[in-house]
Design a protein that fits this description.
Layout: H1 6-17, E1 26-27, H2 40-52, E2 56-60, E3 65-69, H3 74-81
């Protein structure tokens, strides 16, 4: 697994704290809102990297893309967050 960047860790932490794991998910558009405006584009790129690494799952819905943490990777996620 490639190293996790600070921004990726912040994305994972937001999802973990709010309990967006498995079937509970949130809009992909909510993730960049945590970051300053000049970093939101980078946050979207980092989110795509987490999707490729399968740390985050995507849930397509009829109205928008939803995301949540992959429950099968919780051991890796908790190690990243150092819990």
């Amino acid at each position: 697994m490639p190293p996790i960047t600070l921004m990726q860790k912040q994305i994972i932490q937001k999802l973990y704290i709010h309990g967006y794991i498995g079937a509970k998910h949130t809009s992909e558009e909510n993730i960049p809102k945590n970051f300053p405006k000049h970093l939101r584009g980078q946050a979207k790129k980092e989110l795509q990297q987490l999707l490729k690494q399968q740390i985050i799952n995507q849930h397509p819905t009829s109205y928008e893309k939803q995301i949540s943490l992959n429950p099968q990777k919780l051991d890796i996620i908790e190690k990243i967050l150092e819990l």
